[in-house]
């Protein structure tokens, strides 16, 4: 099956956090966001994109933001398919570090109660998230890239994000298309 391509942009720089990783071509397909760069190629499924946004003002208009170029920002979860086996780059000084001090006298906790407490709470099995930035050579490409990503992401909803009411709406729509109308008073009998 051939992917339907919605947008292709050449001369794009690809960053993880604020580290330049590659230059190349951003290809926005109906089912994936693809990268064909000088040093790496990868695809990201829309279900792995948690958030996407446009940052059109250098530094985001905030002196604490350290990224200087207008860009399309993606927050992605799952595997680092773009990494080529490289370690996660250090974040550097983001101005958001929290200094922690070790408390001096912490009483020992019974390991048995610790295990019981862990069983009472679900484990956090959320995949790690990563900040990716795509910087096109022409800043006018930011909005079209964002809009096409938004449109394609809407075509690929994440099943985990669907609520029960969304599922009920789908079932209700399906029943209406099949001629079943649960709201029709003639469907109810007076006993």
UniProtKB/TrEMBL annotation:
Family annotation (InterPro entries): ICln/Lot5/Saf5, PH-like_dom_sf
This protein's UniProt keywords: Cytoplasm, Nucleus
Composition skew (Acidic residues), residue ranges: 109-119, 158-175
Pfam families in the record: Voldacs (PF03517)
Gene3D superfamilies: Pleckstrin-homology domain (PH domain)/Phosphotyrosine-binding domain (PTB)
GO biological process: mRNA cis splicing, via spliceosome; spliceosomal snRNP assembly
Annotated GO CC locations: cytosol; pICln-Sm protein complex; spliceosomal complex
UniProt-annotated stretches for the region Disordered: 84-131, 156-191
Major localisation: cytoplasm
Domain of life of the source: Eukaryota
Localization (cell): Cytoplasm; Nucleus
Protein name per UniProt: Methylosome subunit pICln
Source organism: Hymenolepis diminuta (Rat tapeworm)
């Amino acid at each position: 099956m051939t992917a339907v391509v919605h947008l292709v942009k050449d001369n794009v720089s690809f960053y993880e956090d604020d580290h330049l990783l590659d230059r190349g071509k951003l290809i926005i397909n109906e089912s994936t966001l693809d990268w064909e760069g000088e040093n790496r190629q990868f695809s990201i499924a829309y279900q792995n994109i948690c958030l996407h946004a446009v940052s059109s003002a250098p530094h985001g208009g905030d002196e604490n933001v350290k990224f200087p170029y207008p860009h399309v920002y993606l927050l992605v979860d799952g595997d680092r398919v773009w990494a080529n086996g490289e370690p996660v780059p250090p974040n550097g000084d983001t101005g958001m570090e929290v200094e922690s001090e070790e408390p001096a006298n912490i009483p020992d906790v019974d390991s048995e109660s610790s295990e019981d407490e862990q069983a009472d709470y679900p484990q956090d099995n959320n995949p790690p998230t990563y900040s990716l930035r795509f910087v096109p050579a022409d800043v006018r490409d930011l909005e079209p890239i964002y809009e096409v990503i938004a449109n394609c992401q809407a075509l690929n909803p994440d099943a985990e994000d669907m609520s029960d009411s969304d599922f009920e709406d789908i079932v209700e729509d399906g029943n209406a298309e099949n001629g079943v109308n649960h709201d029709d008073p003639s469907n109810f009998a007076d006993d």
